[in-house]
Every structure is written in C-alpha cells, then in structure tokens.
C-alpha cells in the first residue's frame, strides 16, 4: 500500500480512545487499528510520514507501549517503540518517565472549562479573586503544555505556590481543585492532593525527618504536596524542620516536571518563612491571597451545608441563624476561622436538633427550629 493511501486509511478508520498496535519487521510494518483494520507500510522513508500523524493520535487517543494499550514493537532491532511524543525509547518499551509524559499529554487536549474540577471551582461561594488567579494560572500552564507538544521552547515558570490567608478561607479546597485541573489539562499525571503539616514531616531524631518527608513526597508524585502552616518547619537552626525543608527543596528540583508543592498559612508568617531561606524564595514566587469571607458569603455557606444534608429551617430559624452568623463576622477576633466556624455552628445546631427529637419518633427530622439555634 502506498504511503498516501495509508494516511487516508488512518484518518478515516482510527477511532480516538481505541488501542493502536505497531509491529515492525526488517521488511514491513503492520499497524492494527481498533482491533480490526490492518495497514502494511513499506519499511522505508515513507514510515516517517506516519510519525507526525501518530504523534497527534498519541496525544488524543491511547497510544502506548504494551499489547493491551498502545504501541508494541515486535520487530527486534529494526524499529524502536514509539512513545506518546513520537520519539523513541529503545527496544524495551517506554520508560516510566515517557509513560508519565504520555499520560499528561493525552489529557492536554481538554479545555479547562471541560474539567469537572473547574466546575467545582465556579460553584464555590465567594473567592472571586482566587478563582481568577487559578484560571489564569491554569491557562498559563496549559499553554506551556501545548508549546511542549509542538516542540517549542517552554518558559520556565514555577508551578509551586504560596497560599496565604486566615483559617477556613478555602485554601485546602482550592489546592484540591487545582490538582484536578492540572491533571485534566496535562500538567500533572495523577492530580492527587497529599496534605501534611509539621507533625507529618518532622521526627524527633536525626535522619528520620528525611525519611518521613520522602514518604510524603513519594505519595505526592504526579500531584500536589500541600503543607499547612509551613512556617512551623523553620523554628531554628538546630531544629529538624530544616531537614524537611532541604528534602522538599531537592524534590522540587528533581521532580519539577510532575510535582507541585503548595505551602499555606497566615499571610505575615508565610512571608517571613519564604523570606528566611533563599532556596524557598527562588522557588516560591507566586502568592495567592485568600481573603476572609463577608457576612453574606458566610450565610450562603451555611445554607449550602443545610441543603447538602437536606435540612429545612423554619422562618424563625433562618432569622436566628443569620443573626448569629453576622454577629460572628462582625465580632471576629484574631482566631476567627471563617467557613470553619460556620461549619462548627452548623454541627452544634444539628446536635441540638438531634437531642430535641430523640424522644419524638414521628417528628420531621429534616426541620430545624429556632430552639435548635438559640441553644448554641
């Protein structure tokens, strides 16, 4: 079959998302499409014409390096197995690195707006400036993925972030959403979020902190390592927290293609933490500030909780709940925890309702009354 006929057959018959197998011999190459179609291609310069087309298919469909899911090479020395980017990786199949790269590239064709995580982002109450920052960042990273696909030079932007703000402002939630978006657009291969704090990383004796920290890093490969109250790692020169910082900095360099670190905490303390170490300052140059919720936003968050768990408030109960939430916001002190405090209020109300209804088997267990709120 002539090469141009092969081009047409590939374009016409291949269905994205189905396996493709390539087998080569000294004389010919056989390509199986969808488990049915077979093309015999002369093993000469015309083979190279298929490489460009296969690169596209590798991005959009399932082209791999094993018999069940991808490109397989059974021809010995004549051909090397093609990885997702159209390159070769020898006779032994794709390396873990190239497979990771392939997984990210396959997802890179998705639009940010098509991501389920993006939809979750837009449904969040408030945080408009944060949402804008996240979308801007995701668009920037998506363009870098596309540049890489087209073999253009990538601008070396840092993926690592500082989330600063008071407790209960959505930092962990946004980190989880960002991990999902990065997975969907091809920046990260897995998109998991691994949460930790000082207690998860720092041990009480020499050598053990590095082991603990490496375990968390290993769990976060392909996703995001989220370190809450990261400034607690820097308590002094002789503190084992410095060992954790050094281990994390090394991983940020070694795994920079498929690993993101987000450090989070109070605004001023995070600035001091990043500024205290040149290694941190050079790697964390993007800050996202999380503002406190307004009283109206806290009320919306409360009603989101009641709707999620199918509770119904009487009119008097609504008035009382809103009054309490607005008072909480107006009188907030340095330890005010925003949505976390609203969550605590909701749980206390539900507890009071359960106590009130314990001896009333026929009562409506969905209804919350003014009495349930007044007892808080």
UniProtKB/TrEMBL annotation:
Segments of this protein annotated with the region Disordered: 64-103
InterPro entries, A to Z: AAA+_ATPase, AAA_lid_6, ATPase_AAA_core, CbxX/CfxQ, CbxX/CfxQ_RuBisCO_ESX, P-loop_NTPase
Presence of the UniProt keyword Nucleotide-binding in the record: yes
CDD domains according to UniProt: AAA (cd00009)
Keyword field: ATP-binding, Nucleotide-binding
Superkingdom, natural source: Bacteria
Chain ranges of the AAA+ ATPase domain: 157-294
This protein's record includes keyword Nucleotide-binding: yes
Record-level Gene Ontology MF annotations: ATP binding; ATP hydrolysis activity
Family: Belongs to the CbxX/CfxQ family.
Alphabetized PANTHER family for the sequence: AAA-TYPE ATPASE FAMILY PROTEIN / ANKYRIN REPEAT FAMILY PROTEIN (PTHR43392), AAA-TYPE ATPASE FAMILY PROTEIN _ ANKYRIN REPEAT FAMILY PROTEIN (PTHR43392:SF2)
Record-given protein name: AAA family ATPase
Species of the source: Porcincola intestinalis
Lineage per the UniProt record: Bacteria, Bacillati, Bacillota, Clostridia, Lachnospirales
């Amino acid at each position: 079959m002539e090469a141009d006929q092969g081009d047409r057959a590939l374009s016409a018959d291949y269905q994205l998302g189905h396996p493709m197998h390539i087998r080569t011999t000294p004389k010919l190459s056989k390509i199986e499409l969808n488990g049915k179609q077979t093309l015999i291609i002369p093993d000469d310069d015309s083979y190279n014409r298929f490489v460009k087309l296969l690169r596209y298919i590798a991005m959009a469909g399932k082209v791999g390096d094993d018999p069940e899911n991808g490109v397989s090479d059974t021809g010995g020395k004549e051909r090397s197995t093609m990885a997702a980017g159209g390159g070769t990786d020898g006779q032994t199949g794709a390396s873990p690195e190239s497979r990771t790269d392939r997984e990210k590239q396959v997802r890179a064709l998705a639009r940010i707006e098509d991501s389920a995580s993006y939809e979750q982002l837009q449904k969040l109450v408030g945080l408009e400036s944060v949402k804008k920052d996240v979308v801007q960042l995701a668009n920037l990273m998506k363009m870098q993925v596309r540049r890489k696909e087209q073999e253009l030079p990538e601008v070396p932007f840092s993926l690592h972030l500082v989330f600063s703000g008071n407790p209960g402002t959505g930092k962990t939630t946004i980190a989880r959403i960002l991990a999902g978006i990065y997975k969907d657009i091809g920046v990260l291969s897995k998109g998991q979020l691994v949460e930790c704090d000082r207690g998860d990383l720092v041990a009480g004796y020499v050598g053990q902190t590095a082991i603990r920290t490496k375990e968390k890093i290993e769990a976060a490969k392909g996703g995001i390592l989220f370190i809450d109250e990261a400034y607690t790692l820097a308590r002094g020169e002789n503190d084992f927290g410095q060992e954790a910082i050094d281990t994390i900095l090394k991983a940020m360099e070694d795994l920079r293609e498929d690993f993101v670190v987000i450090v989070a905490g109070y605004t001023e303390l995070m600035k001091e933490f990043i500024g205290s170490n040149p290694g941190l300052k050079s790697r964390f140059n993007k800050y996202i500030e999380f503002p406190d919720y307004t009283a109206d936003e806290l009320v919306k968050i409360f009603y989101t909780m009641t709707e999620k768990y199918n509770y119904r408030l009487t009119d008097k109960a609504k008035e009382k709940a809103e009054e309490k939430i607005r008072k909480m916001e107006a009188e907030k002190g340095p330890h005010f925890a925003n949505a976390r405090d609203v969550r605590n209020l909701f749980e206390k109300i539900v507890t009071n309702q359960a106590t009130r209804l314990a001896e009333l088997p026929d009562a409506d267990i969905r209804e919350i009354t003014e009495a349930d709120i007044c007892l808080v």
